[in-house]
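Complex 279.
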Amino acid sequence: MQIVKTVKEMHAIALAAKSEGHSISFVPTMGFLHEGHLSLMRKARDAADMLVVSIFVNPSQFVPGEDLDRYPRNMKRDESLCAAEAVDILFCPETEDMYNDNNTVVVDEYELSKQLCGASRPGHFKGVLTVVAKLFNIVQPNIAVFGQKDAQQVRVIEQMVTDLNFPVQIIVIPIVREDDGLAMSSRNTYLSDDERGRALCLYKSLCLAEKLYDGGECDAQVIKGLMRELINSSKGDVDYIEILDMKTFQSASTIQAETLVALAVKYGATRLIDNTILD
Ligand code: AMP
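Predicted structure with adenosine monophosphate bound:
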């Protein structure tokens, strides 16, 4: 595995590989890797000739006051995990190399990104889209793999790829969970034992939504209400519980084919997200 630390070198390697006819698959991450990230790598590994993984804690997607400074990092451990997954290139750029003081162009989205996480984290998706567009230009992937865990992120990236004609195929991988159901996340490390126990209610509330729907309940208000009761019982601070059309990301009052149930809840200072698809 080659570790590449500059944008210039990464770009040169990618262009050379493409000119020799090799395909590139790409997994962008913020590091502190877990099984969720590794499942993306395994999918990407089989999808192209060369697998590139990036680790970059992107400052522009953190809203002021968020956890940018304390975001968990462990580069040595991440390097060995990537090597074990047969990653060809691990790209870890410095912030100063990715952004300079003269940056005045960004990528933004005006509809799908404005609700849910976009409402509580204004500017977050602008930061995500801008860095993903930059990374796509630097890494030149044919295929990029993302996790369903960040359902809204996937949807806005797919829209960017369509609207801006990026020649990149997006593959989405299901949510990887701990044995007890908690969705894996680098931020789970912030949770105290007590919060970790209570945070299971995110998964439980999604299971409840699935059970209600399987039992014939199609009224989104009823399902959201019962989910909220469950989260309240765990003393979680609900940011949102939403039931949406997967394509438009508009609230659904009745559940039809391909409906997303998504929620964000805070336990202490830690904000967790999770979702499930009802179909
Ligand atoms: P992050 O490092 O949190 O920015 O995530 C990098 C990629 O891993 C994103 O595409 C995430 O959606 C994906 N990811 C994070 N957690 C999980 C998980 N539990 N299951 C599947 N994919 C995940």
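The mean pLDDT is 97.
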